[in-house]
Design goal:
41% of the residues lie in helices and 14% in strands. Strands 1-9-8-7-5-6 form a six-stranded parallel beta sheet, with helices on both faces. A three-stranded parallel beta sheet has the order 3-2-4, with helices on both faces. The chain binds nicotinamide-adenine-dinucleotide (NAD).
Length: 294
């Protein structure tokens, strides 16, 4: 069997198109232009690339982008004061603090200072709790993107066995909650899981969010399963980016698979834009865009 490739790049372009249409409607019918503020502390090169890309795509869908670049030695008090200003600013509908923050700053404290209604990354403890209890939340972008691709490919996920490899707060745990919300039977595997290949072999849906290049092999995959590869890794001596799955051997067995690059990655920013529109609608008591939220 050779798997269908789930084209995250094309899907993300479609989501951005839907976001742009909704932004236009908000402008035309309500005089509202959604605004996304991105806060970057320090000069981490990867973070700079992400922030640039987020700003560019925000503008491309017709929203306002506000970039706040602060020096690496910014104090916690100054960062919290900026967040307070953004919380109070009616032109700002979404706030994202680019992680990781420099070590002297307490990420939990900073993230939890964001108004939960503007927390477009979905990392605030209130949004984590809302998602965990099946209530309307701001949903973390990467898992939301994975869910959208799965729904698009399968329609209903009800009753499917899903194995999420990785238990991080930003990917693994919220991914598991979303799959549970769609009535999957969910297993969360992690670094201490016994006989991981055997656990993965039971899965109709595999989500790999580990950060270890090409760890998941084709002989771990149940024939016909859907494989969503969240990993973004580099391998010394080889050019390009690599997922957590060994693409060639997994694609031989799986029914569908996301490539790296061009799978989950592009969906993450598309979902950030979608979340900003959702936040704008909720803040103004307007109907949310269909298909852009969990
Ligand atoms: P993390 O380091 O916070 O978590 C990794 C998880 O993997 C941990 O829960 C750990 O228990 C588990 N793990 C580690 N070794 C394992 C092993 N041998 N077997 C089973 N489980 C193991 O990482 P993260 O932030 O969740 O990111 C995971 C990967 O996803 C990374 O490659 C990251 O770059 C990528 N990522 C991609 C996007 C995107 O937009 N596509 C977004 C976020 C993260």
């Amino acid at each position: 069997m050779t798997a269908t490739i789930i084209d995250g790049k094309a899907f993300a372009a479609k989501v951005r198109g839907q976001v742009a249409e909704h932004v236009q409607r908000l402008k035309d019918e309500h005089g509202l232009t959604p605004g996304l503020a991105v806060v970057l502390v320090g000069e981490d090169p990867a973070s700079q690339v992400y922030v640039r890309s987020k700003g560019k795509q925000t503008v491309e869908v017709g929203m306002n982008s506000y970039e706040h670049k602060l020096p690496a030695d910014t104090s916690e008090a100054d960062l919290l004061a900026l967040i307070e200003r953004l919380n109070a600013d009616p032109a700002v509908n979404g706030i994202l603090v680019q992680l990781p923050l420099p070590k002297h700053l307490n990420s939990d404290l900073v993230i939890n200072a964001i108004d939960p209604a503007k927390d477009v990354d979905g990392f605030h403890i209130s949004n984590v709790g809302l998602l965990g209890t099946g209530q309307k939340a701001m949903v973390p972008c990467t898992p939301l993107g994975c869910l959208m691709m799965l729904r698009d490919h399968h329609g209903s996920l009800s009753g499917m066995n899903a194995v999420v490899i990785g238990r991080s707060n930003i990917v693994g745990k919220p991914m598991a909650q979303l799959l549970l919300g769609d009535s999957c039977t969910v297993t969360i595997a992690h670094s201490r899981t016994r006989d991981l290949p055997e656990v993965v072999r039971r899965a109709d849906i595999v989500i790999a969010a580990v950060g270890r290049p090409e760890m998941v092999h084709g002989d771990w995959i149940k024939p016909g399963a859907t494989v969503i590869d969240v990993g973004i890794n580099r391998i010394e001596g080889r050019n390009g980016l690599f997922g957590d799955c060994d693409f060639d051997s997994c694609a031989e067995v799986a029914g569908a698979i996301t490539p790296v690059p061009g799978g989950v990655g592009p969906m993450t920013i598309a979902c950030l834009l979608a979340n900003t529109v959702t936040a704008t609608c909720r803040a103004n008591g307007l109907a949310e865009p269909q298909g852009l939220t969990a």
